[in-house]
Amino acid sequence: MTEATDHFSVGIEDSDGQWPTLPQTWSYSSLREATECPRRWMLSRAKYPDLWSHWGYPPRPSLPALIGDVVHGVLETLLRSFRSNGCTSLADPAMVGVLKDLGGYTALVEHGIEEQFDRLAENPRINDRLGPLRTALRVKVPEIRQRVQAVIARMPFQSVDSGPESTDSRTGRGPLPYGFHPEVELRVPALRLAGRADLMSIAEDTCEITDYKTGAPDPHHADQLRLYALLWSRDHELNPQSLPIRRLILSYPSHDVDVEPPTVAELEDLASSTTGQIHSAEVALRERPPPAYPDPAMCGQCNVRQLCPEYWTDLQPTPVRAAAETDWFDFEGTVSKQNGARSWLLAAKADDASFLLRTSSETVPFKVGEHLRLLNLRREEDPEGSLPIGTLTQASEVFIVNRSD
Questions:
Q1: Which residue spans of the chain are classified as CATH 2.40.50.140?
Q2: CA dist 126 to 15, 120, 281, 306, Å?
Q3: HSE (CB half, 13 Å, CA atoms) of 27?
Q4: pLDDT at 94
Q5: Are 262 and 226 in contact (CB under 8 A)?
Q6: Residue by residue, what is the 3-state secondary structure of 156-184?
Q7: Does domain 179-275 have CATH number 2.130.10.10?
Q8: 3-state secondary structure at position 216
Q9: Residues spanned by CATH 3.90.320.10 within the chain?
């Protein structure tokens, strides 16, 4: 990897970039990512003018991730509508009218799906998958609707304070009145931290924070809620009376999990440790290039691993390793020759061992002599063959390495 002060080259076709500036305010997820791997954080947020006009490397979302985004979007729409219409319980007659005006659960889910694909329309990394992804997501409409309904059924409704909210004209923020509030942005400039709570329920002397999770339980989910508790305790614009947290709730598709609210002493320790974490992360992010921390589990899910030399040299992903661990693998090598109408021989970078690549079409985005990084190949077996085999599928990606770099 080569770089100037602000610009860098990773040696991948059309992927020269410009390093991003560091944020003034950190979120839990962004700080966690920067701590886990500074290189990934920077590459994910850099600008790639040869690819598109936006900041950040074009994402390649998975079906589960898209489902999660749709669920979150529908929940936000519903909760905002329930609050604005004064709904206080599932039995409230006003809810029927709200759902009717919104078109019902199915219409909301279908609209949420289209919103997701509107956002992906300019993404050059997803264009060839838009049609199949849309079809796959629309098949999931009944499942997504059931997920949303299950969450709403467990929602901690409270009466809504109809009185005027006191809002600071300079910041547009003010004390939260009694009732439930979806998508609350918590900010503590002194800590350079912010977070968006999915749902806050404010009572007379306490409050609850609920965070909706669409995937499997993870220990980091509880850590995120504890950070929200810290933000609430020190956000003097939204919480000038320093109302304590009574309950922290992780709401999964099938159940809720309570997280023990931090004590005053634990909040102090969390503030101190997070400040130190921000400092350490920013020291690493200012290095050129920022350090990379290759790890098989983490790198396998990385959106920019094709740009990271350390991933390909330190971990050396190969078909042999994949055979023992997973049916999907990455591979780096040079196209030696065409072996058939839909198969090619590649030489591995590490030991020049041959590897057979199969394609679904005779038209391929590479040619003999080019050096490639291939992501998400499906491992195949041929009882009569002696070579490891990988197949390009719709989930696979091909990146051409500029050998001069």
A1: 316-401
A2: 16, 7, 31, 16
A3: 9
A4: 86
A5: yes
A6: CCCCCCCCCCCCECCCCECCCCCEEEEEE
A7: no
A8: coil
A9: 179-275
The Cα–Cα gap between 12 and 25 comes to 31
- How many alpha carbons lie under 13 Å from residue 294 in its C-beta half-sphere? 13
- The reported pLDDT for the residue numbered 388 is 87
H-state helical runs in 235-331: 264-285, 296-299, 309-310, 319-325
**C-alpha–C-alpha distance, residues 14 and 124, integer Å:** 12
Architecture of domain 316-401 in this structure: Beta Barrel (2.40)
Cα separation, 272 vs 276, in Å, equals 6
Q: Does pLDDT of 402 surpass 70?
A: yes
Q: How far is CA 8 from CA 17, 34, 397, in A?
A: 5, 19, 22
Euclidean distance between CA atoms 388 and 385, whole angstroms: 8
Given a contact cutoff of 8 angstroms between Cβ atoms, the answer to whether 373 and 334 are in contact is no
| CA 403 – CA 280 distance, rounded (Å) | 35
29-33, Cβ contacts within 8 angstroms, sequence gap of 24 or more: 29/224, 31/274, 31/277, 31/278, 31/281, 32/220
pLDDT of residue 352: 67
Residue ranges of E strands in 2-102: 2-3, 7-9, 17-18
The pLDDT tens digits of the residues spanning 55-98 come to: 999 999 889 999 999 999 999 999 999 988 888 777 788 888 99
Q: Is the pLDDT higher at 50 or at 381?
A: 50
Element (H, E) at 390: strand 389-391
Structure tokens at 246: 């009574």
Could you give the CA distance from residue 311 to residue 378 in angstroms, rounded to a whole number?
19
Residue type at 301 in one-letter notation: Q
